[in-house]
User: Fold these one by one.
Assistant:
Number 1:
Amino acid sequence: MSAILNEPFVDAHQHFWNLDLHPYPWLQGETVPNFRYGDYSALRRNYLPGDYARDTARCPPAMTVHIEAEWAREDPVAETRWLMEVAEAHGRPTVVVGHAQLDRENVAEVLAGHAASPRMRGIRNKPATVARREDARRGARGSMDDAQWRRGYALLERHGMSFDLQAPWWHLDQAADLARDFPRTQLILNHTGLPADRSEAGLQAWRDAMSRLAREPNVAVKISGLGQPGRAWTQEDNVPVIRDAIDIFGPERCMFASNYPVDSLVASYDTILAGFLAAIDRYGPSQRRGLLHDNAVRIYRMA
């Protein structure tokens, strides 16, 4: 079986979990409300380096970024310690983004615990958001506007940590203000800003929100999470969205990311990577290399 890509690339967003040994409430009894792909029961199984190797057999990445997988919040540093063991044994992940609840009193202690791990690069904390655009309000407790949450965010710079943001596009005005107010902290938008509404009006509103965020130079975006519930992942649906995101942020600030195994609910790894390759076929070798490899290496400090 031939490879679908014969040049090195980085997967900037992947997950491992071992449900036999470790606590992941969302996979072990709890249910995520409004999960964007609907039924996710197929994820309630172990997903470890061997599983990832199987899924990427035709397209193994050179390096990967492990994003926190919602380990039980009582001890998020334990997830990072476990991932250090996994990396030593299997060579993956290359670097890690951990979790810290930025508005908790112990956030400084948690960040220091993460920082003790040499592969640690940043934090993901999902701020308070709403599921519908019409319900979006500024200033909510636990949101990117919250003063206490921002005090925790300010501590990232002390450790040289980046911030991975997962939020619907109707909250990106908050993200733009956050990036502007903390210009020395790299902010990395997850899952292409979640353009779930594919109507023309919905996509235009997403593009407008992304354009506002892109004005802040310390923001990058990961191209991932583009599946739609109950619908096959197709290039017809997703290549235009990928190209819009790259046009808005520029090819120097975008990265390929699989979101595996979560996006296995909507597509094979090969399908997602092939769609990204189709979207970037109009770029020259240098920009293509950046989109596939060099941007992630730079932004996540992997060299």
Number 2:
Amino acid sequence: MQVDLFDFELPSERIALRPAAPRDAARMLVVEGSGLRDAIVRDLPQCLRPGDCLVFNDTRVIPAQLEGTRGEARIGATLHKREGPRRWRAFIRNAKRLREGDAIDFGADVSATASDRAADGSFALDFAGDEPVELLLERAGRMPLPPYIAAKRPTDERDADDYQTMFAREAGAVAAPTAALHFTPDLLASLDAAGIGHATLTLHVGAGTFLPVKAEDTDDHAMHAEWGRIDAATADRLNAVHAAGGRVIAVGTTSLRLIESAAGEDGVIRPFEGDTAIFITPGYRFRGIDGLMTNFHLPRSTLFMLVSALMGLETMQAAYAHAIAGGYRFYSYGDASLLLP
């Protein structure tokens, strides 16, 4: 499909620079079939049915943004995928000043050697020393806010909490599964009381999620792989939800992509551990999920293509036009949509 079909105009003032407070006070656009309804996130128990199950991503964002030097050159690195115990694949700013074999000093006694430059311009970074890389990043790294926020304000101490979900447990993501940022313990208790269950899986979100689609046709776009895991108990739980007539509602496109990667043509969700580079565009037949809660996405992005595949392009164009006209806040710290085909 032509990528231009997924373009739209978004006024810059619609981009949220801070999350709603409290988190579950964010607005939520309910898209059910082709109908639209305005709500807020804490209305979620009334928007779902007893027996439904929300699926959260329990990945934890690491301080994956690094600033360093190679000689006199300033080098920026955004880690996006672990490739070994001490090796991470990284997107590099000022990459023309970096060669394979060069060492980068990130300060705080943290350094890494660049190697294995890929076609997309990324490098592998091998971190020096014996300390766990996670400890090195805590010293030298900072929270990797999305570029559309980082371009408007610096990262600060609030982001260390604001950019983690209440489910964050498994360290390894360089971007938050932002739909789950809206959840609070009180909201989860209300959902439980309404008979709506929840489960967790792990998908370590990569910085590739922010990359624009530069191809003119979706067939020519290459997705970056991300590592994920659904254990046997979770797979069994989700299959039991379906067997009992409930719906599996992914919270975030990360949860959706992993469930769909694990689901077979027969609709059965199986245990999964490994990389997925699934790319969902209109025409895709969903096998594992029955709905999605997600934030509002970038024009021409793979994520807007995904929601269009779920609900239909015309429906999502109408939903986004409604959201823009109605003052909804967009992107990672913005408002939510609940998509029920």
Number 3:
Amino acid sequence: MFDTETYLKHLGYTGTLEPTADNLRELHKRHMMTVPFDNSRNAAKGLAIWDDVDAGADHFFQALIAEGRGGICHEHCGLFRTLLAELGYDVKVIASGVRGANDQFGPDLEHMLATVRLAGADWLVDVGFAGPSFTEPVRVSEDVQEQNGFAYRVVEDGAHLVLQRRPGGRDWQAVYRFTLRERELSEWKAIASGENDDPYWHWAGEMIRAGTLIYGRAYETGQLLLVGRRYLRAEDGSDHTRVLAKTDEYESVVRHVLRQDA
């Protein structure tokens, strides 16, 4: 059963409960530091990953907090937005299409995240994106916002908004594109049932069906991301990447990212 006090204790959060920007930043970062991204329970499901998109906060709380497991985007999003709503934040679900290796964006419903309306501004809230991305909310604005040596901004691109990220001394690169239109969970259920005929899912679905294991977690000054055997550590404005060829090293990194060696 979802329990706000237990959730906050899991995050190690001891601040005030007022819905402020500073508190939102700390809650967001603490979630990403203590609740890892882990698709290993869902990697073999293909587009059926959306089957339990509407399972509810109690279900996600049991898996990610009570049992201490990691999860995927809609599990993180469903859990965290429930916490924010309980604390009085104005939160809604939105969707994004992620930039692929060919610089093309995936379907608009490829990823689930949320926005918070606070002090007259919209903030991107995304604790369930494997990354690398932001660890604290990003204001929906072209103003440059710095985190851990990386710069972020949101720019217009036709009918979409695009979240961009810039490592130190490098060019801007898109992370994903989105709109601020509130989404219904039934839209993702339509994907799982095959009712959604968006042609982009033909290739995005194949990528999901590949079953690559992905693990991710934030820490105080950056992020860790393991995609297959490719290990990325993002901190101080730099992305450091290497391939883990040895099985024992790979398994050690998985345990570290999942906090199983803590």
